[in-house]
Specification:
The protein is of the alpha/beta class and 251 residues long. Strands 1-7-6-2-5-3-4 form a seven-stranded mixed sheet. Helix 5 runs parallel beside helix 6 and helix 6 packs across helix 7. The longest helix is centred in the C-terminal third of the chain and has 31 residues. It is globular, with a radius of gyration of 19 Å. 35% of the residues are buried.
Length: 251
């Protein structure tokens, strides 16, 4: 209800396709592309027409934050600690077997190119182990609100496109091949979604539009370099923080 009020306050217009593919009962795993920091909110809206709630797998930092932490815990989202992914994986499988809808970002991190990155195999393995359908979901327009390398923009009147694809039924026998199939499916849905998006809201040169569509977003190759630089800088920052803490203890 709070999210719906926020959507109304922001004047968001929704362009939703295929939402009837999300089952009204039983477990299902939603594989959602990741282009913004608000994807777990708007991605969950894909299940709203089916009357379902989505428990998203989200990074630990959101649960540790003093503002978002209580919210994430109260909504029973799944805390993903990258240093110990087994616990979150098992919790996700348990939710699925209990008939819940679980959302996962198989790219793991936000795509700076706005295209589908390489996917982790966890999504197909979880769906196979739980015996539930794996449903690809594409978001578009969320990156215009809050994403990496760009200022926040919560001005009114943006269109948010949500496209739900046909369910996949991985067996888990060939996780790499089934993950490649999922990636191909999501890439095709993304192409379909971008082409159907209101042209007036993504003119040529738009920073949120992939380079191959005439936008100025980084190419996938450039995005990989930016991701690597960010990872190095984060590691250096953590090393400095550890050194500072050690120096304080030594005084």
């Amino acid at each position: 209800m709070t999210a719906k009020l926020a959507f109304r306050a922001l004047g968001l217009r929704f362009q939703m396709t295929g939402t009837e593919r999300i089952p009204r009962t039983g477990g299902a795993l939603l594989a959602v592309n990741h282009i913004s920091y608000v994807d777990f909110v708007l991605g969950g809206f894909a299940a709203n027409p089916s009357g379902r709630l989505v428990r998203f797998m989200a990074k630990r930092e959101l649960f540790d934050h003093r503002w978002t932490g209580p919210l994430m815990r109260s909504l029973h989202h799944i805390n993903v600690d990258r240093a110990d992914g087994i616990a979150s994986y098992e919790q996700g499988v348990r939710y699925l077997r209990e008939g819940e809808i679980v959302g996962i970002f198989p790219e793991a991190t936000i795509s700076r190119s706005m295209e589908i990155k390489e996917l982790k195999t966890g999504a197909v393995r979880m769906a196979a182990e739980a015996g539930v359908p794996l449903i690809p979901v594409i978001l578009w327009g969320t990156q215009r609100m809050m994403t990496k390398d760009h200022p926040r923009d919560f001005s009114r009147g943006k269109t948010i496109a949500i496209t739900v694809g046909e369910p996949l039924h991985p067996t888990g026998e060939h996780p790499a091949a089934e993950t490649a199939e999922l990636r191909d499916t999501m890439a095709a849905l993304l192409d379909e979604t971008i082409r159907a998006y209101p042209a007036g809201e993504q003119p040529p040169g738009s920073w949120w539009l992939p380079a191959r569509y005439g936008g100025s977003a980084p190419t996938p190759e450039e995005a990989l370099e930016l991701d690597a630089r960010e990872k190095r800088e984060r590691a250096e920052r953590r090393a400095r923080q550890r050194a500072e803490r050690a120096a304080k203890k030594a005084r």
